[in-house]
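quick q for whoever's on today - can somebody do inverse folding on this one?? i tried earlier but teh output was garbage lol. tokens:
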């Protein structure tokens, strides 16, 4: 077990214990955030960049630094105040803030796993006390989407594996409900051929971050909606952040809530089981909610020779910008066990398949896969 994991476990245990002892809950709609560690020039500029993207103007941030910078109106340097929430910008300050960890959020990119990227990406939604408003928008858009597409018998989920490029071998897919994910939006030729109905994405570092990869991805998302009237499904708590920056998506964006169990979402119960992969998190539940026969293309899985998650088709990946993701969120990649991730994903996929099949759904992969759950359903086997 690494030191970072031990420190993360310590932080989680103490934070939960203090919350239970004090009855404290992070206030919805908080307004004052104090950064507990002194920032050097580089970390100050980095912090300001993150505030501009992740935080609403209604939240004021108070930082300590020897340096000055071009700050937005809601960032104050060396001005003290009482705070609603504390940000710990360096894991070295965790012990120093021991007795207020229940009121603190760690945003050190070198801390552990997804802790930093999730903390930043959730911040906007926590600071905006309008959950019912966003839920109503999602429900209205979901109703309209299912009215437009719910009459179709079949859906196809297009993923980013190397076999994705075989899509022209199956022209019948164009008549189905077409669900794409993630950076598939990059491939203009495919997009024009297939004209996607639904786009799903959920990753805090590739999709909801401030890095250049995520910026380019969202630019292609806007282009997709403008050109094809595509609906977008994302995690419910990302709705405030996305609509703050992209209000033009209001009539197309659908936030999906959390459920501890598998669920086929409906407008009255717009939730799914949260998983670590976009296929099981949003693609399959949405496809299964609307259609009885679901095809998959591009779910290749991880080859034993792959070094990270799995090899993507280069036509649907921003290869030249990958390093900007790693630089922005190093612990996300450093602390990932990719073999364990694949095995957990395979088990989750098999369980979701069985859940859907028990409700009359049929799943068919159009390609061979390193994932046993998908390979066993190759061409309807």
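ok took a stab at it. sequence:
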């Amino acid at each position: 077990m690494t030191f970072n994991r031990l420190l993360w476990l310590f932080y989680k245990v103490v934070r939960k214990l203090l919350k239970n002892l004090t009855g404290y809950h992070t206030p919805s709609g908080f307004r004052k955030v104090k950064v507990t560690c002194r920032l050097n020039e580089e970390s100050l500029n980095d912090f300001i960049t993150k505030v501009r993207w992740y935080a609403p103007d209604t939240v004021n941030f108070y930082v300590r630094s020897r340096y000055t910078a071009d700050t937005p109106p809601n960032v104050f340097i060396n001005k003290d105040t009482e705070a609603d929430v504390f940000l710990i910008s360096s894991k070295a300050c965790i012990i120093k803030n021991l007795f207020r960890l229940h009121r603190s959020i760690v945003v050190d990119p070198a801390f552990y796993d997804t802790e930093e990227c999730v903390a930043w990406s959730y911040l906007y939604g926590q600071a905006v006390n309008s959950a019912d408003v966003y839920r109503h928008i999602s429900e209205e858009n979901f109703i309209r989407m299912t009215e437009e597409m719910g009459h179709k018998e079949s859906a196809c989920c297009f993923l980013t594996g190397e076999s994705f490029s075989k899509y022209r071998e199956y022209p019948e897919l164009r008549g189905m409900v077409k669900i794409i994910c993630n950076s598939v939006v990059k491939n203009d030729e495919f997009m024009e051929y297939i004209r996607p109905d639904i786009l799903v994405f959920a990753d805090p570092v590739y999709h909801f971050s401030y890095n250049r990869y995520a910026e380019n991805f969202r630019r292609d998302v806007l282009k997709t909606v403008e050109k094809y009237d595509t609906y977008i499904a994302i995690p419910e708590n990302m709705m405030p952040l996305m609509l703050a920056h992209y209000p033009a998506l209001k009539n197309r964006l659908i936030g999906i809530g959390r459920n501890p169990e598998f669920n086929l979402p409906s407008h009255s119960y717009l939730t799914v089981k949260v998983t670590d992969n976009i296929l099981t998190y949003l693609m399959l539940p949405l496809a299964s909610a609307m259609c009885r026969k679901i095809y998959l293309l591009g779910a290749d899985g991880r080859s034993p020779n792959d070094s990270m998650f799995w090899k993507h088709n280069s036509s649907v990946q921003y290869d030249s910008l990958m390093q900007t993701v790693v630089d922005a969120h190093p612990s996300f990649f450093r602390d990932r066990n990719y073999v364990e991730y694949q095995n957990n994903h395979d088990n989750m996929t098999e369980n979701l398949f069985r859940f859907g099949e028990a409700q009359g759904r049929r799943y068919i992969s159009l390609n061979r896969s390193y994932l046993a759950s998908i390979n066993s359903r190759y061409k309807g086997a």
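fwiw DSSP finds twelve helices and 13 strands in the chain. also The longest helix spans residues 3-22. so keep that in mind when u check it
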